[in-house]
Amino acid sequence: MADIKNKKEKEPTVLFVAEEKEPLFSKKNRKLLTDPLNDDNPITVQVLGICSALAITVQLEPSVVMAISVMAVMAASNVVISLLRNLVPNRIRIIVQLVVVAGLVALVNEVLKAYAYDVSKQLSVFVGLIITNCIVMGRLEAFALGNGPWKSFLDGIGNAAGYGFILILIAFFRELLGSGKLFGIEILGHKGVTLAESTGLYALGYENNGLMLLSPAALLVLGVIVWFQRSKNRKLIEK
Amino acid sequence: MNALRKKLDQLKKPFAKGEKWEKFAPAVNAFDTFLYVPNHTTQKGAHIRDSVDLKRTMITVVIALLPALIYGIYNSGYQHFIQLGEQFTFWDAFSHGALKVLPMIIVSYVVGLTIEFIFAIYRGHEVNEGFLVTGILIPMIMPVDLPLWMLALSVAFAVILGKEAFGGTGMNILNPALTARAFAFFAYPTYMSGNKIWVSEASNIDAISGETLLGSLAANHEVHYSVWEMFSGSIPGSVAETSVLWILVGAAILIFTGVGSWRIMLGGVIGAAFMALLFNLWGVNALMNFPWYEHLLVGGLAFGLVFMATDPVSAAQTFKGKWIYGILIGIFCIMIRVFNPAYPEGVMLAILLMNVFAPTIDHYVIQANVKRRKKRVSTATVKSA
């Protein structure tokens, strides 16, 4: 008993830590934005949020909308949770996080329904499923609970950008190869009923790749992206 | 012979270590080993040296494939003339088929080997011979009228994503030839199934009954081929999978030389026959009522069991595992055929599925063996004590 008391007394009492004033876009903060794009990408390195990458990447437009929605949800929820981090008891933090994310997702859903109805119909249930996107909860748990609001904001934007970047990349290949279009515009020419009615590549006998329209194709494209990334970025290779 | 060796050594000089074209050594060595047995010696430990290396094994499989291939070439022409109702001689049919099939084989080899050489040079390892078989298998299991660029794309997909992504020959999980077919099947379904594609140059004729046997069964049409036609293979189908007769010749070569596993082949036949018999008893639609022995003769079942399921890389390795693996392929093949008319050809998906499970099967077979022997040890010690 006495020992413990002695030890406690010996410890210097910290009343006040002089925090260094950090510029808004210091090197550390910029790393929060750029790391998730490559070295710490949520999809290709952490392998999170795969379900939505499979489900909605058949076309570019919904993928872009999805990327923006996730970015809005992540940035806002990261800031909110970061502000609440010292108020929320540890035991109920997951519930609080869920409530915050769910509220934001509902908001995004309403906005989409109001201003982008067609896309919102295409995304259907997957907008609601942002709640269960592992990246959102993962960043809240791993980052927002331990960092200030500005850093959390940057982290949210960075991770959502890393997620969206891969999403759009996959959707680019899937829409181009699967239906010969980009954003719904026929890039490779028009496919008519017969060869004579077709234009562009289709006149030469080109055919759309039906495999790209199936969900497994997203995994294949993702696999190739991971392969390419790891062959370029040597530090990602596990020993 | 010595003169040739000398000439080769002289030609190889610029590719030696530290020389100008060192990087391209794998490519040159690959051609060299076609002519001479490599002069590598084992450096460490005791190894069994055998003249039957990968190259000889693969060539044996290619030889076993030839009877089916030659018949397939003839059959491609035969179906063409029969369906068009024209007069023809044996040579007409054979040359028509050859003009269709040879370009497919050339495209398959050129595309596949180019990719293999690029990867070998890039990674600095030897060019492996696995593609010798894959390259000839792929055109054999495709419809004869498949556009060549689709074939090329399928080959590229199979070699890059099916094989090189996993580390090259011997490391692949799935059979590369079937990977190519699965790719083509899902990417270009209108070119891989239906009733117009199995007969060459028939897509423009309306009144044609060129669907495969399984296709017409799935559509509840009458089958108008005799058992002998099914066995000898004069029915529409992929290039070289129709003739059970010539596939059996290939199987005999594989089993006699010990290259292919008879356990897998027999297991597959037993599994398929068992499943087909069960469906015969059930018998609700045309596919279920199709006699079990005819189920064994039609479609790619025989070809798949003999040449694809026995692929030593992607199959199970243990003896017991081979039985389980073969029987399950047979069961799944018939099950997919009967239950899903959209995929009348079940053997491709059955083999790919079992490829994925082969390591698991081996694992449990080995674990069971370990357990049994442990038990034997423990009972022995109890008895002696």
TrEMBL record, chain A:
Q: Name one GO molecular function term.
A: oxidoreductase activity, acting on NAD(P)H, quinone or similar compound as acceptor
An annotated GO cellular component? endomembrane system
An example of a Pfam family matching this protein is Rnf-Nqr
Reply yes or no: does the keyword Oxidoreductase apply.
Answer: no
- Transmembrane stretches in the record are 64-84, 96-117, 123-140, 152-173, 210-228
Q: What compartments host this protein?
A: Cell membrane; Endomembrane system
In the UniProt record, does the keyword Transmembrane occur?
Answer: yes
**Organism domain of life:** Bacteria
Q: What is its EC number?
A: 7.2.1.1
- Where's it mainly located? membrane
- What keywords does the record list, in alphabetical order? Cell inner membrane, Cell membrane, Ion transport, Membrane, NAD, Sodium, Sodium transport, Translocase, Transmembrane, Transmembrane helix, Transport, Ubiquinone
Topology of the protein relative to the lipid bilayer: Multi-pass membrane protein
Q: Which reaction does it catalyse?
A: a ubiquinone + n Na(+)(in) + NADH + H(+) = a ubiquinol + n Na(+)(out) + NAD(+)
| Single GO BP term | sodium ion transport
Q: What is the purpose of this protein?
A: NQR complex catalyzes the reduction of ubiquinone-1 to ubiquinol by two successive reactions, coupled with the transport of Na(+) ions from the cytoplasm to the periplasm. NqrA to NqrE are probably involved in the second step, the conversion of ubisemiquinone to ubiquinol.
By sequence similarity, the record places it as follows:
Belongs to the NqrDE/RnfAE family.
Q: Subunit arrangement? A: Composed of six subunits; NqrA, NqrB, NqrC, NqrD, NqrE and NqrF.
Q: What is this protein called?
A: Na(+)-translocating NADH-quinone reductase subunit D
What organism does the record attribute this protein to?
Galbibacter marinus
UniProtKB/TrEMBL annotation, chain B:
- Compartments (UniProt record): Cell membrane
Does the keyword Repeat belong to this entry?
no
Residues that bear FMN phosphoryl threonine: 212
Q: Which reaction does it catalyse?
A: a ubiquinone + n Na(+)(in) + NADH + H(+) = a ubiquinol + n Na(+)(out) + NAD(+)
A GO term (biological process) for this protein?
A: transmembrane transport
Q: Which GO terms describe its cellular component?
A: plasma membrane
| Top-level taxon of origin | Bacteria
Stored InterPro entries: NqrB, NqrB/RnfD
Q: Which UniProt keywords apply?
A: Cell inner membrane, Cell membrane, Flavoprotein, FMN, Ion transport, Membrane, NAD, Phosphoprotein, Sodium, Sodium transport, Translocase, Transmembrane, Transmembrane helix, Transport, Ubiquinone
Q: Per UniProt, what is the membrane topology? A: Multi-pass membrane protein
Q: Which GO-annotated molecular functions does the record name?
A: FMN binding; oxidoreductase activity, acting on NAD(P)H, quinone or similar compound as acceptor
First-tier enzyme category under EC? translocase
EC number per UniProt:
7.2.1.1
Question: What are its cofactors?
Answer: FMN
Membrane-crossing residue ranges in chain numbering: 57-74, 101-122, 131-161, 235-257, 264-284, 290-310, 322-340, 346-366
State the family named in the UniProt similarity comment for this chain: Belongs to the NqrB/RnfD family.
Q: Assembly state and interactors?
A: Composed of six subunits; NqrA, NqrB, NqrC, NqrD, NqrE and NqrF.
The protein's role, per its UniProt record: NQR complex catalyzes the reduction of ubiquinone-1 to ubiquinol by two successive reactions, coupled with the transport of Na(+) ions from the cytoplasm to the periplasm. NqrA to NqrE are probably involved in the second step, the conversion of ubisemiquinone to ubiquinol.
**HAMAP family named in the record:** NqrB (MF_00426)
The protein in question is named Na(+)-translocating NADH-quinone reductase subunit B
Underlying gene: nqrB
